[in-house]
Amino acid sequence: MSETAEAPGPVTIVETPIHLDYKFTPGVAQSRFLRALERGEITGQRCPKCQKVYVPPRGACSMCGVATDEEVKLSGKGTITTFCVTQIPSPGLVPPYVTAWIRLDGSDITSMFLIQECDPAEVRLGMRVEAVWVEESELVPDLGNIKYFRPIDEPDAEYETYKDYV
Amino acid sequence: MSNRVAVVGVGQTKYAAKRQDVSMAGLVREAAKRALDDAGMTWSDIDAVVIGKAPDMFEGVMMPELYLADALGAVGKPMLRVHTAGSVGGSTGVMATHLVSSGAHKRVLVVCYEKQSESNATWALSIRLPFTGGSVTGAGGYFAPVIRAYMRRSGAPDDIGIKVSVKDRLNALNNPYAHLKIPDISEEMVRESPMLWDPIRYLETCPSSDGACAVVLTDEDTAKGTPNPPAWVHGTAVRSEPTMGAGRDVVNPHAGRDCAKDVYAQAGVTDPRREIDCAEIYVPFSWYEPMWMENLGFAPEGEGWKMVDDGSTSMKGDLPINPSGGVLSSNPIGASGMCRFAEAALQVRGMAGDHQVDGAKLALGHAYGGGAQFFAMWMVGSEKPNA
Ligand SMILES: [Zn+2]
Fold this sequence. Notes:
The complex is a heterodimer of chains A (166) and B (387).
Chain A: H1 27-38, E1 42-46, E2 53-54, E3 60-61, E4 66-67, E5 70-74, E6 77-86, E7 97-104, E8 110-115, E9 128-133, E10 146-151, H2 159-162
Antiparallel strand pairs in A: 1-2, 1-5, 3-4, 6-7, 6-9, 7-8, 9-10
Chain B: E1 5-12, H1 24-39, E2 48-52, H2 64-68, E3 79-82, H3 88-101, E4 107-115, H4 121-124, H5 138-154, H6 160-172, H7 187-192, E5 195-198, E6 200-201, E7 210-219, H8 220-223, E8 231-240, H9 254-267, H10 272-275, E9 278-280, H11 288-295, H12 304-309, H13 333-349, E10 362-369, E11 374-381
Parallel strand pairs in B: 2-3, 2-4, 9-10
Antiparallel strand pairs in B: 1-7, 1-8, 4-7, 5-6, 8-11, 10-11
Helix pairs in contact in B: 3-13
The structure holds zinc ion.
């Protein structure tokens, strides 16, 4: 059925943009983590039952179901346990860029961070990396204080030491 | 399960990148009407309606179940919305089964849908929170590292994902409802398609689809009077686990293994590889087929890829996986799990048409969602289960 001015076809799409600004109350446990970030430090919390250290801490061990009260200061160095090279454009990022699952030294869970100051083709499992922070004057209570991770001059970690952290 | 439950009707829309000929209401109604026709029923025969879809943020329509109540004939009847991320199509089927097995209702209409052409699923899934680090770009950005870890852990050859992609797209050619139809699909074509989230290539990912899938579930008495052979539900199970748990295995999640064990036990299955005739499982990225072969107990850990490599999961193999073409060929997210459940039912009803597995008597439907932390499964058979 051809469309004419007298008999227009169905309306197939109407653009309806939505913009939402959310507010977030972190609660007691995450406040400690966010205050540490504001000081330029990264901290985890240890589970009193399984002894595993969570970062970012959420106030409880989700496997044991108990509160994680003990604070553990971490160095900001870690190991890439797995990663992905993204070729799709993303706001503020020019492809290809690398997102890696990083097990921070002293923690028992991985967090996802960008890897920069490095050719994406060079990134590998077991690679040792460190956090790169924003300027001290720019510190806020947000994990965005860590801009990305970059490689450090250390030998790659052995597979056995990180294989269970995905 | 206390009362027997039968699948007496299945209805699907044509899956496509853009179904701009219909609104959301028109889309769900199309699938529901086809399921009712298959069941030999009309809207007034239905006692209750259960609806499932992925996050509201995808299409930006808040609580769409309210808006869709009249289109689904639910006015004046109980209506329930289920939501468990990508596994929702499966868990919606499970919740609806409970409504019948418990004796609460006799005839339940179950409908799941997604209209991805009206949505922006990738960015709805890529929101940064103040307590998380680098941004993830869509589901591929989350699952690509998991696939890389599986490849390292299993030592699987690099071309396993490519083989799955070709197999599912060939199967889709025999499914009139499938979205992607690539008649000249080949390993070379998949290999040369662009890397999106290395190690995931473009042709190793699912499409973005519009579509809806519906089933009609009834009790045993009602099933006696329906025109087409029923599929009988032999077991249902749902499991979840936290996204961020220290010691959690994202490659081979505990919740998936537990969910499979539960559904096998209910169905009296002790050797799933031998006893199950075919399975429709949730594979949005090609490598998830070998990974789920292990998680579902069809292959020992680290050896799921061998079932792909030797053709066991093809239509000619001993355990055809995704005869319909699977999620890799049609992905209306909220409905994708329901498609798996519905296709498993079609197989044991002998109604799968050109993608029928000869003599299929027992089939598994599987769905997963979130960060591989929600699982839903059902086992359906051509024979009634033991009471
Ligand atoms: Zn614990």
